[in-house]
């Protein structure tokens, strides 16, 4: 019996507004890929990202274009060669992992040798805003051990001072989303170090980051937009101290595992992050992140409504997925 695929565009409201240096949104737009093989069903979710030239329609069409190969039983290794990295491949790859687990009766965690998996401490993201508004966000979440702060533009130094003062017991990641420049990065990094920031994520635009090789790193610097697949890593040695692995960038868990292992071999620290999606998108990333130094899988915490069943969050601790959700 041939495998059957279905593709669905879904929208989940965000609790309030989520703002980064490139804009704001009030809902998470996701695409779910479901692959059925007899009585077994595998699911994967992706989040098309405009920064990488993706649209809901384009990603939906890219998944649909694989219908014949999926019906023919394409495996994950062949999928890597058949599609480019990105959201569309991620949805299919994660659906195949889920389907394989259901057919074989072994969880993905068991297949990866990480069963039982452990609970993880995730960062919680504060949206970009004026310093006073961001301080209020930080104060409201001051009990969380790790806060990720969206910055990237004028007044960032005031934002850094405001949030660190409002949540003095928390650790902080600063995510500039490519919003700093060669003229302000040295001063911004120095201030970040003075305020005990743990990590600065993608301060400069991808491809315009050569200066990172020549300046001090008083705070570790993490690549995000600059890294998608394992083949990107060699060029980043000497520029970055860590890499942020996201399934929607790598094009699925299969490539993300290879990216993580290559990053470790080259001496990079590892962060596992996410787009704003539901628990279905976070589930495979939780397995990827079992040994990561930084975990940023708070997508469902930013939503007004998640999937049911979803992941279990207790404060900033997130548990591995139940097999009713994924894997």
**Sheet of most strands:** 8 strands, parallel
Q: How are strands sequenced across the largest beta sheet? A: 5-6-7-8-9-10-11-12
* Number of alpha- plus pi-helical segments: 11
Task: Estimate the global geometry from the Cα principal axes.
Answer: globular
CATH topology of the largest domain: TIM Barrel
Helix-strand pattern: EEEHHHHHEEHEHEHEEEHHEHEEE
The helicity comes to 25-40%
The total domain count is 2
Summarize model confidence as the mean pLDDT.
97
Cα Rg: 19 Å
pLDDT < 50 stretches: none
Distance between the termini: 22 Å
CATH superfamily placement of the largest domain: Enolase-like C-terminal domain
The secondary-structure class comes to: alpha/beta
CATH class assignment of the largest domain = Alpha Beta
The number of E-state strands comes to 14
Amount of beta strand: 15-25%
Which architecture name of the largest domain does CATH use? Answer: Alpha-Beta Barrel
Structure description:
By secondary structure, this protein is α/β, with parallel strands linked by helices. It folds into two domains: 4-111, Enolase-like, domain 1 (2-Layer Sandwich); 120-318, Enolase-like C-terminal domain (TIM Barrel), CATH 3.20.20. It is built from eleven helices and 14 strands. It has helices at 56-64, 67-71, 76-82, 87-104, 108-111, 131-140, 156-166, 185-194, 247-250, 253-265, 279-288; strands at 4-20, 23-37, 40-46, 120-121, 124-126, 146-150, 171-175, 199-201, 221-223, 242-245, 269-272, 294-295, 313-314, 317-318. Strands 5-6-7-8-9-10-11-12 form an eight-stranded parallel beta sheet. A three-stranded antiparallel beta sheet has the order 1-2-3. Helix 1 crosses helix 4 and helix 6 runs parallel beside helix 7 (156-166). The two termini are 22 Å apart. The model has no long low-confidence stretch (mean pLDDT 97).
